[in-house]
Amino acid sequence: MTRSFADRHIGPDDTELTRILDVIGVDSLDALATAALPATILDGSGLSALPPAASEHEVLGALAELAAANTVATSMIGLGYYDTLTPPVLVRNLLENPAWYTAYTPYQPEISQGRLEALLNFQTMVADLSGMDVANASMLDEATAAAEAMTLLHRASKSKSSRLVIDTDLFPQTKTLLATRAEPLGIELVEADLAANGLPDGDFFGLIAQTPGASGRVVDWTEVFAAAHERGGLVAAGVDLLAATLVTPPGEQGADVCFGTTQRFGVPMGFGGPHAGYLAVRQALARQLPGRLVGVSVDADGARAYRLALQTREQHIRREKATSNICTAQVLLAIVAAMYASYHGANGLRAIARGVHEHAVAIAAGLGAAVVHDTFFDTVLANVPGGAEAVVAKAKSRGINLRLVDADHVAIACDEATTPDHVAAVIESFGTAIDPDADTATFSPIETRTSDYLTHPAFTRYHTETAMLRYLRALSDKDIALDRSMIPLGSCTMKLNATAEMEAITWPGFARLHPYAPVDDVAGSLRLIADLESWLADITGYDAVSLQPNAGSQGEYAGLLAIRRYHLDRGDTHRDTCLIPSSAHGTNAASAAMVGMRVEVVKCRDNGDVDLDDLRAKIADHADRLACIMITYPSTHGVYEHEVAELCALVHDAGGQVYVDGANLNALVGLARPGRFGGDVSHLNLHKTFCIPHGGGGPGVGPVAVRSHLAQYLPGDPLEAGSHAVSAAKYGSASILPITWAYIRMMGAAGLRDATLTAIASANYIARRLDEYFPVLYTGENGMVAHECILDLREITKQTGVTVDDVAKRLADYGFHAPTMSFPVAGTLMVEPTESENLEEIDEFIDAMIAIRGEIDQVGAGVWPVTDNPLRGAPHTAASLVGEWDHPYSRETAVYPRGLGHSRAKVWPSVRRIDGAFGDRNLVCSCPPLEAYES
User: Angle at Cα 383 formed by Cα 377 and Cα 386, nearest 5°?
Assistant: First the structure.
């Protein structure tokens, strides 16, 4: 009999599943559901709207039909989105390579050196091209990067003003997101034509401009920026990094912060994303930079090593005091952009930029007096009184999409894919023939940049395909991703990203669509999106879904924003308190603060459940101010709380709304629906439950789902002012939605339910087998956990001195990525096997943990000292074996802890344990100079 896709996706076969259930003590998956979940929330009516399961080839055929229903026109729309020619060596060996796309966020840096080096290259590229000192390791998109820049200016400015000046030539989607973020924080936006009129009257804390602007205009901002500084304001500038290869960058014109996107560096438009935004700052602001920052440190042997720097800024530590709720970055796309820059180098990028500009100049020459601005890079704005629609229609008939600015103006954006034929067709659309002798001298030269950039070897060594191929392979060999090992991360659901799910994302029918393309061009994508919205609503029990949020944190923000607007529309302006259990994800509190809510923490009981007595007391204290409660279900402690329905009722009775964080939806699909057991709104994580890969820390997608009374408050079109959009594109990271569409379509209702129950079964199997070695901290009724379990090492650490860090690093010597460390409880490990791992791999992990417990016992017994043992010395590199060996344990114990004959492939970490404190004290966040390599 032909095996179904679900059989391939779910790891344990029937025999293995029987053994798993025997250990747990139940005789079937249905019996497991009854034992683990509260009867009050079990919901067998879900998934009724899903189509029947289809095979991989049937689904690929259906996706091909959807892609064919899209029209891949030549896009000359611009507004921050441009066609780009991704080098095939990067498509095959990076974007389509599971060694890169299945990796996790590099919180275990010793086994993440490859992607950390690639991200350091990204930071260096951005800092060099923008003219700034420090860049972070990517933002979600350009508009959200601008919003982060706004709040950074607000924090860092010494001005007491709440006013922010924004230039009228900002991209419209950027203006919309600034307005969305500003309103709950009490920030007033003042729009002005800064190039024409200078600064407006009155005080302000900051200024945001952009070059080139939405109209294509290139402006020297030096005097305006200096004037802003003289009046006590800080300055942020959006900058096109390709333009910055020719034009003096804002960092050299006096900007304090630069933001933008790296989309045109080899990352397809993809109907809106995912793309890597960026944020870069002067050195004085480096420690206020939101998001992730890769830094250079040293390992235990003094060798250079990379790590995430300043991790105390992470939301799980700072909570409502966090400067941002950013959790997911866009790592995979940032790496594509960085490698694009490495492959082309400074000279190659400059040549591409000159080609783009020359095509724009040729168009401008053909249009003559219709051209509005005489200084531009890639975008020409033409004035055709009353004729704009006709011009756009004529270009459309020639297969080219131009941007209709208004009835009198058309914008034409050139890019890397623009050809002389495109130039000719555009000019013909205006009714003007090309004049081969046209005088282009009337257009101002833009090549004003004199500073060098991309001089580091990372950008000079890899210009041939052979060199790039080997560089990518060398980097990926330094990392552990899902293609090498189980990644048992609690709360992060590192499950199989099947090849059939991934295949369509690079097809031109999905990848080459502009997010603002005419609606007739994107019929296939809109059908796919409508399917997903319907399916996700059915799975979750909600009434409406928006796919716009391009990360889980943005889904949280959109959901809380909907709650806030709901209360305001009802006149409940006083409802500003958000109750959050002490066990919650850190982004919950950060998101609440961003929408202007006050956070009140609700205690948890000793068993990990929300303390309903404390909840009642908090509700009584804040009843008239209660806006909502944010809970995670199953709880962050990995347990199905049996009082969840009562909890929801208590909040509703007090006039509040219930936000159910969907981070743990992998334990609910097909069994229970948050929209039916009390939730008013949830965000989902398509990069967790629905198989979009983590990509080393992004992309993510965080759709927001709501009951009908909140539907009108979902985020709208970012091109429409007042739409409360949360991402730069209406459908967010649309080009990776085919992954989730394919997963749901191939699994079908029965497959999805079996996946959930298998994940629960595997977690309980691990909990039962490891409990005698590492006590399981929390269990629900019947001694069950949900899809993950927390192993408590606190007493072990107290007795032996061995810490969770020691165990995590030692697991690398056994060939495993570590579980989640010290979240949600310090001194613990949270393990989530997912449904994708078969019993052989689960048992390998369990055996490794049992062996590590044996090593811990030897430390406890005094056989090895606390300061020098295989755990404290872990991880061990091949280089550490060479030369003198003065440890009380053998070389073989160090690197082959289960013996040379063990069948599991050896993983060799490339560095020893990294000194994090050294890296934070000596903050270096760009590629070390050449001398560092020579030394």
Answer: 150
Sign of the torsion formed by the C-alpha atoms of 619, 620, 622 and 624: positive
836: nearest Cα among 758, 915, 732, 721:
758
User: What is residue 562's three-state secondary structure?
Assistant: helix
What secondary structure letter does DSSP report for 604? B
Phi and psi, residue 163, nearest 5°: -95, 135
Q: How many angstroms separate the CA atoms of 551 and 686, rounded?
A: 9
List Cβ<8 Å contacts ≥24 apart for 769-774: 769/23, 769/846, 770/831, 770/846, 770/849, 770/850, 773/849, 773/850, 773/853, 774/829, 774/849, 774/853
Other beta carbons within 10 angstroms of residue 734's beta carbon come to: 27
In percent, the amount of the chain with pLDDT more than 90 equals: 89
Q: What tokens does 885 get?
A: 């060996």
d(CA 824, CA 838): 27
User: Is the Cβ–Cβ distance between 320 and 630 less than 8 Å?
Assistant: no
Q: What is the mean pLDDT of residues 558-569?
A: 98
Please determine whether the domains at 98-339 and 751-920 fall in the same fold group of CATH.
no
How does pLDDT run across 87-143, given as a tens digit for each residue?
999 999 999 999 999 999 999 999 999 999 999 999 999 999 999 999 999 999 999
Is the confidence at residue 931, as pLDDT, over 70?
Answer: no
Residues 6+ apart with CB under 8 A from 39: none
Q: Across-strand partners of 371?
A: 382
Residue 510 in this model has a pLDDT that exceeds 70: yes
Angstrom distance (rounded) from CA 845 to CA 378: 54
CA dist., res. 395 & res. 430, Å (int): 8
The answer to whether 682 and 704 have CB atoms below 8 angstroms apart is yes
Question: Do residues 625 and 575 make contact, with C-beta atoms less than 8 angstroms apart?
Answer: yes
Phi-psi region of 189 (alpha: psi -120 to 50; beta: other; left: phi over 0): beta
Mean of all residue pLDDT scores within the chain: 94
Name the CA radius of gyration of the chain, rounded.
Answer: 28
Residue 271 CA to residue 266 CA, distance in Å, equals: 15
pLDDT at residue 287, rounded to an integer: 86
- DSSP three-state, residue 766: helix
- Are the C-beta atoms of residues 789 and 763 closer than 8 Å to each other? yes
The rounded distance, in Å, linking the Cα atoms of 604 and 615 is 9
Rounded CA gap, 449 and 349, in Å?
Answer: 14
CATH T-level topology, domain 98-339? Aspartate Aminotransferase; domain 2 (3.40.640)
Q: Which two tokens stand for residue 719?
A: 């091109």
Residue 206, token pair as written in the block: 């900051």
CA distances from 364 to 422, 428, 431, 442 (A): 13, 13, 14, 10
**pLDDT tier, 933 (very low <50, low <70, confident <90, very high otherwise):** very low
Listed in sequence order, the residues at least 6 apart from 859 whose beta carbon sits closer than 8 Å to its beta carbon are: 800, 801, 802, 865, 866, 869, 871
Determine the 3-state secondary structure of 799 from DSSP.
Answer: helix
Comparing CA positions, the residue from 485, 359, 370 lying closest to residue 83 is 359
pLDDT at 241: 98
* Strands 789-792, 820-821: pairing kind: unpaired
| DSSP letter for each residue of 261-304 | E-TTTT---GGG----EEEEE-GGGGGG--S--EEEEEBTTS-E
Encoded tokens for 304: 């250079």
Confidence grade of residue 435 (pLDDT, cut at 50, 70, 90)? low
pLDDT reading at 930 higher than 70: no
Instruction: Kindly indicate whether the domain formed by 751-920 is annotated with CATH number 2.30.42.10.
Output: no
* Burial of residue 898, with CB atoms counted within 10 A of its CB: 0-12 exposed, 13-18 middle, 19 or more buried: middle
Domain range annotation of the chain: 98-339, 751-920
For residue 935, what pLDDT is reported? 40
Q: Compute CA 397 distance to the chain's CA centroid, rounded to the nearest angstrom.
A: 38
**CA proximity to 109, closest of 442, 554, 478:** 478
Q: Give all strands of the β-sheet with 379-383 in edge-to-edge order.
A: 379-383, 409-413, 403-406
* Block residue for tokens 């070695």: 773
> Residue type for 586, please?
G
